[in-house]
Amino acid sequence: MSNNIVIAIDGYSSCGKSTLAKALAKKLHFIYIDSGAMYRAVTLYFLRHNVDLNNHEQIAEALKDIHLNFHSRDYQTHITLNDEEVSEEIRQMPVSDNVSSVAALREVRHEMVKQQQRMGRSKNIVMDGRDIGTTVFPDATLKIFMTADPKIRAERRYKELHEKNPDITLEEVFENIAHRDYQDTTRAESPLVRAPDAIILDNTNMTPDEQLQFALDKVDTIK
Ligand code: CDP
C-alpha cells in the first residue's frame, strides 16, 4: 500500500478547477496533473489524422501512436504530443468543440485512466478533471467537486481566450461550455457526477484566494 496523498478535483467545464488545482499543488509542493489536457491532446491528434470516431480499429491504432508527456514548469500545464509542445493549441476552439465526443469513447478513457493511475501511484498529486474522484482515484484522500454559475464560467473563459483570439465571441464560448457539460454528464462511460464523498465548492462569488483557503482548510482536516 502506498501512502501518497491524492487530491481529486472534479467539476463542470471552465469553473476554475485548474486555477485551484495549480494553487493547491504549489502551496503543498505536490505534483499537478491536468487530466483534461490529455483528452484535449488526444483530440488534437484525432483531428489532425482524421480519425473516424465510429471506427474502433482506427481509434485503437491511433491510441498506440499517441505519446503524451507532462513537463512541469511553474505549475503550468506543459504537455507534449509525440514530443511536440501542444499546450496552446489544445485550448483553441477546434479542440474544445470536439473534445467531449472524443472523451466519451471507451477506448480513449480506458487508456487515459490507466496512464493517470500510473502517475498517481507513488507521488503526492493534485489531479483535476471529470472522473478523478469517481473512477481514476475512488480512494482519493480528498475530493472536491466544483461548480459555478454557467454565465460566470463563460465570462471567465471568454476573457482568457479573447486575449489570444480577438475573433471569439462570448456566445460561442457559452455554447461550447453548455454543450460539453451536457455531453460530459450524459455519456455512458464514467460520466461527470459528484462522488458521494466529494465536498462541493461553488465558486461563483469567490476569489481564487478564497477558494484556495477553502481547500487548504479541508486539507488540514485530513493531515
Ligand atoms: O478546462 P475545461 O474545464 O474547459 O476542460 P478540461 O478540463 O480541459 O477538459 C476538456 C474535456 O475533456 C471535458 O469537457 C471532458 O469532455 C474531457 N475530460 C474528461 O472526460 N475527463 C477528465 N478527467 C478530464 C476531461
Overview of the structural elements:
- It is a single chain.
- The chain has about 220 residues and is α/β, with parallel strands linked by helices.
- It has one domain (about 5-220): P-loop containing nucleotide triphosphate hydrolases (Rossmann fold), CATH 3.40.50.
- Helices cover about 50% and strands about 15% of the residues.
- Strand 4 (about 80) and strand 5 (about 85) form a beta hairpin.
- Helix 2 (about 35-50) crosses helix 4 (about 95-105) and helix 7 (about 150-165) crosses helix 8 (about 170-185).
- The chain starts with 5 loop residues before the first strand and ends with a helix.
- Cytidine-5'-diphosphate (CDP) binds near residues 35, 129 and 131.
Question: Element order, helices and strands?
Answer: EHEHHEEEHHEHEHHEH
Low-confidence spans: none
Number of domain units: 1
Biggest sheet character: 5 strands, parallel
* CATH fourth-tier homologous superfamily: P-loop containing nucleotide triphosphate hydrolases
On the 0-100 scale, what is the average pLDDT? 95
Give the tally of β-strands. Answer: 8
CATH class category:
Alpha Beta
The general outline is globular
Which ligands accompany this protein?
A: cytidine-5'-diphosphate
The CATH architecture designation is 3-Layer(aba) Sandwich
The helix tally amounts to 9
- Terminal residue distance: 18 Å
CATH topology (level 3) name: Rossmann fold
